[in-house]
Amino acid sequence: MIADGVDVFVQPGPAQCAVFVQGPDLLFGEIRVGGSDLPDSLFDHTWESPLPQARSMMRRAWGGYVHVRLADQARPLSIFRSPSGDMAAVTWRRDAVDLVASTLPDWLTPALPEDLAIDWRQVAGVLSNPTQHTAAVCLRGLQSISPGGLWAEGVHHQVWTPTEFIEKDRPRGVDWAPELLATVDQVVRVSSHSRALIEISGGLDSTIVVGALAACGGEITCGLNYYGGERQGDERPYARAVAHRWGLDLTEVQKPLQPLDLDALAELSSDLRPALNSFDHVHDDHVAAVCQAYDVEVILTGQGGDNVFFQTPTPLIAADHLGRVSVSELLNLARWQGRSIWGLVGEASRARWGGPTAVRAPPFLTARAHELAVQAPVHPWLCDLEHVGPAKYLQIASLANALIVHGRSRRGQAARLRHPLLAQPLVELCLAIPAVDLTLGGIDRGLARQVFAHRIPEQVARRRTKGRLSAHYGQTIALSLPDIVPLLLEGRLAAMGLLQAEPLKDRLSVEHLIWHGGYGDIVNLIMTELWVRAWERRMASS
């Protein structure tokens, strides 16, 4: 029974949030200790303060959860959000009532803070650097709890940080293969007793997830492959090889080329954050429909594999352990990146002692936008990284950005959406593995390729290219320009003085899309504009 004066509301549906109650401790979502479900002993200790309890939970358990410890005479209310970031968490106080939420449905509007307002500093921050989307929400009046963060007595503590798993002077020559294999199986095994849909792109990461689930005896109810009309977006031969290797039925769906439905995108835009995870609304709706048709319980993806296994070809890989990287490793890295060994060593040296390179903001932002963005709080995962090498800094930043995939979506409402390669145990392990070891042999995700070679079809293992749907999305945006141009040039972001009209007009042209791309910046603009409009309407009607 939940304590007097405490009301709990859980959204219904196939992906309904589980609630575990033990005395003053409320746990929402999913939590595991090793590979097991939540044990009764997790809250047996009498903690004097929230910090040691949060530290104990993050060391002993993992999963997508939010832990709330109710206030009593001995302790204040505390909220701890799991490091994986699967479930959001914000808190505020209204009329002497403390509220904690992971989503803000319309019916909750009367209970929102009286001083709720758009935080234009944070809006400018997300426009300048999309990674900021996974930091604080763009609403003043709400306190965001970050992944791995604890809120207690009006103070936010970053309890879990990526840096604690990185040793700058870690010895070389460690055999990481057994632990990597075991950890991937551990984070995938939790879905082995559910009816699962897996998006099989034909790439390495989704193939690793398929192989791990099959090895754990999991039931793969449906395998889906989405492909574009261009060659670089059609990975069907590789996806078929994966399906054949594990005896799966593969459903192939061509992504239709049609303009964006801005009304459909706007429907999901009034929650905590812009609905970037739903930008491809046709794909989102189709996956949700398949889940309902096949009674799917869990959706699994390979999202995050590029980040944890290290896919990026960069000289920074050599910088972290410069002086302890062998000549053969340097040659392999140089060959992979198409540069001379001297050029690679020179750039690695400059990066090692020159500090991280600042993220380049889009050229269409105004001076006012830059001024506001500087005032936005830094993402808590990107603080105090002075002792971290350049490659690991890059990996941490990419992992922070990858948390966008946990955002609101229709498919996430139709079934439980899991990205096992972003689970806490695997993230912690791959942060500990030096980048030069992750790229074993001078190959992107080289260690993962070697460790999972026995589960990967040779056709996929030999593959060095990566399927890209950028051309498809570029064409989609081009078809949508008649709606996008007025949305942005006459929208709220422009009215607040954050966008320069002429540089943005240049970007919003078919010619620029063909020759220069830059689709990510435009997607970020569209979804942030829709979010701002949705919240201004919502606050005006309350």
Task: Tag the structure with descriptive keywords.
single chain; 542 residues; alpha/beta; Rossmann fold; 3 domains; 6-stranded antiparallel sheet; 5-stranded parallel sheet; 23 helices
Describe the structure in brief.
This protein has 23 helices and 16 strands. It is an alpha/beta fold and 542 residues long.
Overall structural class, as computed from helix and strand content, comes to alpha/beta
The backbone outline, from C-alpha atoms, is globular
Radius of gyration: 23 Å
Mean pLDDT over all positions: 90
**In CATH's first tier, which class of the largest domain applies?**
Alpha Beta
Specify the helix fraction band.
40-55%
The third-level CATH topology of the largest domain is: Rossmann fold
Number of domains: 3
Distance between the termini: 33 Å
Query: Within the largest sheet, what's the order of strands?
Result: 1-2-3-4-10-11
CATH superfamily of the largest domain: HUPs
Record field, number of beta strands:
16
What's the architecture of the largest domain in CATH terms? 3-Layer(aba) Sandwich
Query: DSSP helix count?
Result: 23
